[in-house]
Amino acid sequence: MRLLGREELTGPALQRRAYELENEPRSVRLRRTAKGLALAALLAASAIAAADDQDAIDYRRHVMKTLGEQLAAIDMILAKKAPADSFAVHLKVIAATATQAKKAFEPKIQGGSSKPEVWSNWPDFARRLDGLVASSDELAKAAKDAGAAAVGPKIKSTLDCESCHKVYMLPPKP
Ligand code: HEC
Prior knowledge:
Elements: E1 2-3, E2 7-8, H1 11-23, H2 26-78, H3 87-105, H4 117-120, H5 122-146, H6 148-158, H7 162-168
Antiparallel strand pairs: 1-2
The structure holds heme C.
Heme C (HEC) binds next to helix 2, helix 5 and helix 7.
């Protein structure tokens, strides 16, 4: 029988080893447990490290999807398919989410639908997100004062999502 690949034990030798293990001093047993725990922690840490990159990609996609959902809600209001009460709030949420987006893209982790230029042209990429924060914030204020009907026509031209996607996002796979 092989024990931890270190020793070959059979018959009486195995019995002796079992007796030793049962009667070993507490300090030895604790050390053995500590070694086992350290190994488990190491394995867990490497599993976390392996998941890290995908986590960063998933996280920024969740944040970007939030932008998409909020814009879809705004489009419904403008099409009069949803009540206009929350119009300004949706714009506020876009401003807050664009702030989060900059944080979410900060880790330099390629993948998802992002082109490598996100990080090689970081100042331009970041400036575009800052622009989105500022413009959606302004629209939110205007919507609070003047209402959805007045601000609606400005949404498409002011919230420029497509121009950034053209430069920094990979086209969808066929
Ligand atoms: C500064 C550039 C930039 C701006 C501005 C921007 N996006 Fe994006 N967006 C990206 C990039 C890059 C990705 C790809 C992320 C990935 O998969 O790694 C993306 C992905 C997305 C996705 C796909 C998420 C998924 O995985 O399904 C949606 C939806 C989206 N953006 C919506 C928007 C909306 C709506 C706006 C405007 C309100 C916007 N984006 C503005 C760069 C931008």
